[in-house]
Amino acid sequence: MTVEPVRIALGPEPSELLARAITDGGATVSELGQARALIWDGGPAGFPERLPEGVAWVQLFSAGVEDWFDSGVFDRHPGVVFTSAAGAFARSVAEHALALLLAGVRYLPEHLRARSWRQREFFPHVGTLRGATVAVVGAGGIGRELIELLAPLGARVLAVNRSGRAISHPAVVETVPAHRLSEVWSRTDHVVVAAPATPATRHLVGARELAQLKPTSWVINIARGGLIDTDALVAALRAGVIGGAGLDVTEPEPLPDGHPLWELPNAIVTPHDSNPPRLRTVAFAEHVADNVARFVAGRELNARIDVAAGY
Amino acid sequence: MTVEPVRIALGPEPSELLARAITDGGATVSELGQARALIWDGGPAGFPERLPEGVAWVQLFSAGVEDWFDSGVFDRHPGVVFTSAAGAFARSVAEHALALLLAGVRYLPEHLRARSWRQREFFPHVGTLRGATVAVVGAGGIGRELIELLAPLGARVLAVNRSGRAISHPAVVETVPAHRLSEVWSRTDHVVVAAPATPATRHLVGARELAQLKPTSWVINIARGGLIDTDALVAALRAGVIGGAGLDVTEPEPLPDGHPLWELPNAIVTPHDSNPPRLRTVAFAEHVADNVARFVAGRELNARIDVAAGY
What we know:
The structure is a homodimer. Chain A is an alpha/beta fold. The first copy, chain A, contains eleven helices and twelve strands. The first copy, chain A, folds into two domains: 7-88 and 278-297, NAD(P)-binding Rossmann-like Domain (Rossmann fold, 3-Layer(aba) Sandwich), CATH 3.40.50; 90-269, 3-Layer(aba) Sandwich (Rossmann fold). Chain A has helices at residues 16-24, 66-71, 73-76, 90-105, 108-113, 119-122, 141-150, 207-211, 230-239, 260-263, 277-297, and strands spanning 7-11, 28-29, 37-40, 57-60, 81-83, 133-137, 156-161, 172-177, 190-193, 218-221, 244-247, 267-269.
């Protein structure tokens, strides 16, 4: 018995990366006429007026799909399942957070300034995530991806989420509900801020919180600048209250020229580039491979658009 | 039915970290008189002349145990199993390698030099390990630990070992035998050198190998300086033949003041501090917890010393 391969089309342009994603997911690339699904790497403008009858699923590139709703494409294809790229970009941001945290813990900023082999001076400053407690404040998509990266490093994660519903993962030693966040600061070695920006999370990290951390603690922010009180952070970095800060987002943003964060030796600022346009394509390919595998296996697709609900 | 706890003693000094390792491993800390095993965090000088009869296993702190052989301790306790700390320190070195690689891929050296928010200039330079091929040259203890860290980042590992015996791991796309190493350079995005220093591995990375890499490739060396031809590397870094280098070891070592590697913006030099004395204690505690768990379960212990063979 030969099993018929699942045929999936690609548009509007050919793409080697996305073709590989389709193959990786266990399907084969075909013309739209023979396809059961379509991976669409473009906007609504060039989308086919009518899809062939065999097409049951369309994967779109964007995470937000307001313009697709406006275009009427969904209404023209009531029998087709559409999925977005929502959640596909969490991994790149989590990787960036890990890069910042490891750079801090391994004392790379000071190493980069060195012009001489001062091994004995460096020895006491090189840290490890092994056995270290890392508070992941906001355990949504990015936070959960980060936990996967921290696990093999041997970090012990304090996961903070709104509900406090336990995150079941060997690396998570405790899930703390947001209303008990104040207990976390004195219990952790490092903090990664990955929470959404809401009135409740504004200046979540301020002078009082920083004071409870350790002189070796690194604070990483890959969420929104307003979650940290920048003036309090600058004061803590200057006084050595904490070890350092890795910031992909700032308040104000963009960070103006001449701001003290540019000059502080224990601050790493990246200009909100944890998920640059170039990487979105790679992340999208991963998302596609995963969804193709789900489609082939008849499992539920990720990021299915609810046309009736409008998102 | 109550199960009798496995009692393990600690010496020569009390240690909170090691006591927790014993507990983490599923045993309880006790006096030597009642113990079935001893974790010994010191040298041979203060070691007990005669161990109580109940003690079946002794865990030593050092990875090399020449002085223990010289001391006669093993001969005095022929019925006791001794284990060393061999392999315990691979994880810290692997973590350092990952920190250097991620710092390079995420363009952190240039970010650290920035004094202005130049997002659009940075966008094209921020890379990812997701979907990237990483050649791990020398897949021994450190290499295998590194593969565990690279896996959740979505890297595709080309593992190079002497035998070419396949390393079975979802992240390893191919195990390449050392005699086919020349095929690797043009197929990889990044290289981590983790091989032992032997006449056969001297200047393993030279001008010809570097020329086959990409302008975005990072070369990491956490093994021995002599594995890389330093002059060829400096030339490649200057010309932009590769993206950068992260070096915990150099040739010559220590790297002398005024050496071009200190000034090159795409080189990160750390003075052979990937496993500093302070971290060895933490790594040892992990090793102890693992071995205690094995002892409690009656499984084979890691790093058992073969007294007859002399290592």
